[in-house]
Structure formats: C-alpha cells, structure tokens
Amino acid sequence: MTAAARILRPVVTLLGLVCVWWAIARWGHVPPYLLPAPGAVARALWRQRALLGDSALTTLIETVCGLALGVGGGAMLALLMALSPVVRRWTMPLVLLSQAVPVFALAPLLVLWFGFGMASKIVMAVLVIFFPVTSSFADGLRQTPADWIDLARTMGASRWRMLLHVRLPAALPALASGVRVATAIAPIGAVVGEWVGASSGLGFLMQTANTRFETDLMFAALLVLAVMTVVLWWGMDLVLGRALYWVPVRHGE
User: Please, what is the end-to-end C-alpha distance for the chain in angstroms?
Assistant: First the structure.
C-alpha cells in the first residue's frame, strides 16, 4: 500500500463518520443538548480555542509525566524480575493486584492523598500504564530465543553481559509494544483524575461543560483529547520505529 493510500483511508473513514453524525443531528430528531451538530462543535472549538488550548496543555503535561514515570518504573521492575526470581515471585502478585482494583475506584483516594493539582493525575496515569509496560517487557525478557542464550554461554558471557547484550535487545520490541499501548491509554488516567477533582484540564472542562449542558463544548474538548492522543501515539510510534530500526515494519493491507 502506498503512503498516500495509508493517509487517505483514515481521512475517508473520518469524513464518513462526520457525515453520519451530521445526518443524525439533522434528521434524527435528537435534541442539540444530547447530540450537537458538527457545525456547533466547530464553532465551540473556535470560540473557546484559548480555554481548550490551556486545558489541553494541562492534560498533556500530566499525560507525558505519567508516561515517563510509568514506562521508567515498569521497565525497571521488569529488569529486576528478570535478574532475580525472588523479586519476580514477590512483586508480580502486587502488579496483578494493582489491576484487580479498578483505577476509577482509586481516583478519589489519589485526589485525597495527592491533592487537586497535577500530582494525583500523574499518579493515576502511572497506575493505568504500569501493568502493560511491566508485563510486556517481562515477557520479552523471558522469551529470549534459547539458541541466543546457549551461544552467549558458550562464549563465556556473564549473567550481566547476557542481560545487557542478548536478552535486553531481544526484549526491546516487546517493550516498544507495551509503550505504544501505554501511550494510547495514558490520557485515560489523567482525564479520570480530572473528572474526580481538578481545577483545569480537558477532563475538568468536560465535566464543567456537562453540568452546564454545554454539550458542544464538551464534544469540542473530547475532540481535542482524541486528536492529542492520536498525535502523541503517532509521535511515539515514529520515535520507536527509528530507535528499533532493525525490527521489520509491516504495513496493513
């Protein structure tokens, strides 16, 4: 598939969805406070562009900070589990337990503990992405081809050198997959934290617009959040693709 076709396909899909949205809003007898027309959302985007920009910047900072801390912490824990089976036996149940409790239920506690500022939203984002990063990287470290391990042992590689030069490079594609997933879901943690308690951010703006029945502004904030998430994921995918240049890239048909 050519580059133009890969770009054209999502554009056509998006335009088709907008047309369906416009048709439902125009002829579906749906009140505007339930489903505003695309034109109303576009006008809200323009009128409130300054407010939306400030809110998006707040959510973006929370997301990026949570992403950095979550990826760093998850990768470090996965390395420790790979080095020590004892660490793995003791920490893996805790990692699984962190997913057994819905993050939505933890949001009020995090706001209570860390306040209404960015800290609680960053912690929320870290909790959302910690498990996919840790589990994917740990699986990648465990699934190093046995032939590579045997060859390294034959050449007299120590355990540390084997991890650094064999297991770690082999596990980087798995870590990249976890980071891509984390990039896509990190904004969820930030926005949920803003819903529970905040004074700025896209989640706070959506909550405020909802209580005031400003559905067009709520849709505009949701659209900005979606675009921000897609751009963030695309940028991360581009960086990972350049960094892991030896991993073959297969474009969809």
Answer: 6
